[in-house]
Amino acid sequence: MKLLVDAGNTRIKWQLREGSEIRLAGSATLESGDLFEGITRTEWQDIPSISVSTVRSEHARIELERVIKGYTATPVRFFWTRSSFGRLTCAYEDPSAMGADRWHALVGAWHEIQGACAVVDAGSAITIDWIDAGGQHLGGYILPGRTMMTDSLRQGTARVLFDAGQAEGISPGQTTAECVFHGVNWLTRALAEQLGRDLAVPVLITGGDGSLIKTALDNYQDSRIPLVALRPDLVLDGLALVGAE
Predict the structure, then answer these.
(1) Which domains occur in the chain, in start order?
(2) Binding-site residue ranges for K(+)
(3) Per the annotation, where are the binding residues for ATP?
(4) How far apart are CA 109 and CA 137, in angstroms?
(5) Catalytic residue among 101, 129, 233, 237
(6) Distance between CA 165 and CA 80 in Å, rounded?
(7) Which of 17, 97, 119, 218 shows the greatest Cβ crowding within 10 Å of its Cβ?
(8) What does the pLDDT look like over 125-163, one tens digit per residue?
(9) A Pfam family in this protein (predicted)?
């Protein structure tokens, strides 16, 4: 049984896996007080391997390791972006400069597709990466995610005042909150439509706002994409593969 941890900028997602079976899973913030709620003392004693993929600061990484060590003496292994994994090759000249979550999502996608594909991770930031048919990572884009966009408007504009929350739809807003959230939804749809115009390869989507990207792609009639699939565990899937080496 292995503990896999995906420590993102906002939330930390984890799974206990035995082989390919997910025995237990959870998601929380580091400050929640019980990050690994549900894992029993006996299960902690039976965990021989802990693998972590993180994009958090070094201070936050150390704190996460401290929290884990409060439960178990099992060594914690952090996995970072590498120049290659099997036939998959990173586009970055300096792989360490690429977020580990992006790399592990690419590993998971390449393992599943074994061919040209794109990976969209819609989390705090939205990242889009391409792999060609031979496993070469072609690079990608990094954009602000939905929450980051709304937070930047709230913090950076003194007179754009709106309550926290979300408004559905993309029609022109008639309140400031609608203007903000409908605008973000409109941009999300525009991003999906651009992908639909540009791509003719399978697209795997992960991240907390992944379902919004998938819905927009599914509704885009002119798309040439042969497969649009939601893979919420894609980073953990890739982490499991690199951690098994």
Answers:
(1) 2-78 (3.30.420.40), 84-239 (3.30.420.40)
(2) 121
(3) 6-13, 124
(4) 11
(5) 101
(6) 34
(7) 119
(8) 999 999 999 999 999 999 998 878 877 777 756 445 555
(9) Pan_kinase
